[in-house]
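Sharing a chain and its predicted structure for anyone who wants a worked example. Both blocks are below, sequence first, tokens second.
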Amino acid sequence: MPYNFNASDLTSEKSLWQIYKLSRKIQPSKLHVFIIILTMILLGTNAYFLEDDISIILNDTRTWASMGFNFSISTLGFLIAGFTIFATISKPEMMLAMMGHINKETGLPTLKYNFFAFMQVFIVYIVFALIYLLVMILGQKSGFLANIVNFFPYSSLIKLALIKTSYVIIGSSFVYLLLLLKVFVFNVYAIVMNFLRWEYHNTH
């Protein structure tokens, strides 16, 4: 069966960074953006206006970082295992046909549009796992960040800003990761239905 694309197009991306740049064409839903912004506003209001005890904010941030690292790493393992099984049992004929079809919203081949949606989830989980790890190893009491900030003027103000900003970002990231998990589950469902539709049309 002839295809209307070059074989080299299948392997044109050479790194996760290239995949991530292309995956940014897949825009999040407006509802997800609203939920994340609302979460950041609520956490920011608590950190900057409602809670005066900075030790509570700092303790929550460190606790959330530890929880987030465990959650992201364990979830990522299950997601990759599931995706590997899913990709293995997929029919090559259908996937090659999808490569020749262009998604109108993004301009990407439909195959890469579907796979980039999965890869985007993996990449974001890896990035946040790294952020959580850095907070855990560099943001501890008398850790690197606390010590290095002391060399700057207005170090106490910088520490307050860093703690409160980290509180907002790390807290909001939990919501973001859960929303991505929801998208991942739906994408699995949608692609399985497309596989079945492909089989239906090929047998009739």
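Comments welcome. DSSP finds seven helices and no strands in the chain.
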